[in-house]
């Protein structure tokens, strides 16, 4: 069960929770497909199974498309606007 985050929770905490949720969704989908993590990188972006995993991530997280591509190994380097600004 996911913890409920309110308005008082930081953006960084929300991002970390979304990342953990995405990892869990990917693990569930990989298990259902009988794939390993490295199989994600071997699949084309247009593969129907990959699109189904991406659609589930989109529904189950607040990730933008670029973040989903990164989670699925289709984008190696995060772009400047993808990650929350570091407070220092």
Task: Give the key terms.
4 helices, single chain, 88 residues, globular, mainly alpha
Structure characterization notes:
Helices cover 56% and strands 0% of the residues. The longest helix has 23 residues, at 11-33. It contains four helices and no strands. Helix 1 (11-33) packs antiparallel against helix 3. It has one domain (12-77). The chain is globular. The protein starts with 10 loop residues before the first helix and ends in a 17-residue tail after the last helix. It is mainly α and 88 residues long. The protein has helices at residues 11-33, 37-42, 48-60, 65-71.
Beta-strand content? under 5%
Structure annotation, total helices: 4
SS class: mainly alpha
Uncertain spans: none
The quaternary organization reads as single chain
Radius of gyration: 14 Å
State the share of residues found in helices, binned by percent. Answer: 55-70%
| Nearest-integer average pLDDT | 77
- Main beta-sheet strand count, sense and barrel state: none
Number of strands: 0
Topology readout:
Blueprint (H helix, E strand, L loop, with lengths): L10 H23 L3 H6 L5 H13 L4 H7 L17
Helix pairs in contact: 1-3
